[in-house]
Structure formats: C-alpha cells, structure tokens
Design brief:
- This is DUF4351 domain-containing protein.
- By secondary structure, the protein is an alpha/beta fold.
- It is built from 15 helices and seven strands.
- The strands form two sheets. It has a five-stranded mixed beta sheet with strand order 1-2-3-4-7, sandwiched between helices. A two-stranded antiparallel sheet has the order 5-6.
- It is globular and about 65 Å long.
C-alpha cells in the first residue's frame, strides 16, 4: 500500500503509530497492564479477529482499534483491545460499545480481553469508564481503563522529558487542538516537534515514523505548508542529514482530497458525480475547512449547501 493511500484512511495515523510502537504505547498510557506482559515474547495484531466483532466499521467511523495477543509474565495468553477515540465530541453510546466489543470477544473466541481507551476529544468533563445496569436479581458492572489526552496539558514538562515516542504523539495532538484557529502558531510547533526528534537522537526509522504522524495531524494551508517545508529542508541541510525525502511530500494535496472524499462517502454513501467533481476542484485550504465542517453535517443537503457557499477558487 502506498503512503498516499495510507494517508487517505482517517484513522491510519493512529493505527500506524500503534503498530510501530505498541509496547511503548502500553507502557506510556497503561503502565499497570503493561507490567503484566512479557514483552520479550512477540505480540500479534489480530486484525481478522477484530473485523469479526466490528460490525459497524463502515459507518463513518471516527476511531481506531487494535486487538492484540500478548503473553503475561506468568506464561498465560491474554488479549488486549486498545481503542483510540478520535471523535471531536463526547459520544453517548461509548460505554455500551466498549462493553459489546469485550463481550463479543469472549463470546466468539472464549478469550477474556483487557479493554482500554485513549480519548482524544476536547471535552474535559467526558470521562467514560464503565457500563452497568442494576435490577433486583441481575446486575452488571463493566469497567475499562481510559486515558484522556487533554489531561497532559498540565504535564507538559513531563512530556518534554520523556523519551517514549508517545510523548511526542501526545504533544502533537495537544498542539493541533490548541492551534485550530492559529495556523501560523501551528506551523511553528510542527517545526519544533519535528526538530525535537533530531535533537533527542532518534534513529532514522523512528524520525520518519513520528514525522508521518506529526505531518498528518498538524495539517497546514498550502502557503504555510510550503514555508514549513522550505524551513525544514534548510534545517536538515544544516545538520547534514536528510531523513525526510521530498517524495514523502508528494501527494499532499491529492491525499487531502482523497481523505475528504472518503470521509464524505462513509457518512453519506456514494456521492453524485457532480458533487465529487465540486469537491475535487477545491483548493487544499478549502478541503481542510470542509474536513472540519463535515463533522457537523447531518445529510447530503448540508454538503451541497456548503459547496454552494464555498465555490472552488473563491479563496
């Protein structure tokens, strides 16, 4: 699969970084569970098994999941379900969905699963952690672990001092949230976070992995992106090392276009050809604006109205 196609999948940045650094993710976010696991033994991503329990994956999903087989220090096999909630706002049926996935794993595969969730939303009061019901003769209380990325705002020095790759992931996420309307500031932070990878002495493979994540989520308008890329190329030349190639920048605009089309099709099904052509004619800046606006669309009519109000080449 090409890098551009990977970028077109909305949750792929999280999936890629979880696959690349799964032990570090568990150690960073869920250290108590990580302490149970024998990391000397290989872990296995159970993508096919997860697809069997994820019946609604095609319905405009705004989250990433990984089902993983690991081995405990006592030699027993255990499965982990790690869920990344990318949704911008709280979700009413989140607790129920976590319970259902856990139940389906046990029902279909006879395996208990440790369920944990990483919450990327911006709502400080939304803190789901259990699903329960209680009747006179029957009661249930299902609890799962959660980490709220928003809480790391008060732990910034801890993030800066950490050599865990997920410290960088969290920093990039928080600065993306904080700079939604301050894109010049976002460009500065994007450069700073990527430069930090070099200064920390990461290996080339790690720099490229983390660069892809930062570059994906910290999207910039075309002009600022061009400025960033020129500044970054100069920085690499000064250090006499070039880990990020020009080829990794090719397809940026096409990737943004493909991403928005995929998101729209997941929400509304196959788009009319006239609507597709309108979307394809939008500038990168307009595509980014549409990518945020579509989260509030309730139907295809909202998209048509938005396109009428934002004709191509109007910026």
């Amino acid at each position: 699969m090409t890098d551009e196609l990977q970028r077109a999948d909305n949750d792929s940045p999280w999936k890629e970084i979880l696959e690349a650094y799964f032990p570090q993710a568990m150690q960073f976010f869920f250290p108590q569970t990580a302490a149970l696991i024998d990391w000397e033994r290989p872990h296995e991503f159970l993508d096919k098994e997860f697809q069997q329990i994820d019946r609604n994956a095609q319905q405009g999903r705004r989250y990433a999941d990984k089902l993983v087989r690991v081995w405990q220090l006592n030699g027993e096999e255990i499965w982990l379900l790690i869920h990344v909630e990318i949704q911008a706002e709280s979700e009413d049926d989140f607790e129920e969905r976590m319970f259902i996935y856990n139940l389906r794993i046990f029902d279909k595969f006879a395996k208990p699963a440790i369920s944990v969730a990483i919450l990327c939303d911006s709502s400080p009061d939304w803190r789901p952690h259990q699903y329960s019901y209680n009747y006179p003769d029957t009661r249930l209380n299902f609890e799962f672990g959660t980490v709220k990325l928003l809480d790391y705002r008060n732990r910034w020095q801890e993030l800066e001092a950490s050599n865990n790759p997920f410290a960088t992931v969290v920093m990039a996420h928080l600065k993306t949230q904080e700079t939604r309307k301050k894109l010049g500031e976002r460009k500065t932070w994007k450069f700073s976070l990527i430069r930090r990878l070099y200064e920390q002495g990461w290996q080339e493979r790690d720099i490229r992995n983390l660069y892809r994540f930062i570059d994906w989520i910290m999207m910039l308008p075309r002009t600022l992106e061009a400025e960033f890329w020129q500044e970054f190329k100069q920085y690499e030349q000064e250090r006499r090392m070039s880990y990020i190639t020009t080829g990794e920048r090719i397809g940026y605009e096409r990737g943004a276009q493909t991403l928005v089309l995929r998101q729209l099709q997941k929400r509304f099904g196959e788009l009319p050809q006239s609507v597709r052509e309108q979307v394809q004619s939008l500038s990168t800046n307009q595509l980014e604006t549409l990518g945020e606006a579509l989260l509030d669309f309730t139907g295809l009519d909202d998209l048509v109205a938005w396109l009428a109000e934002n004709p191509a080449n109007s910026n």
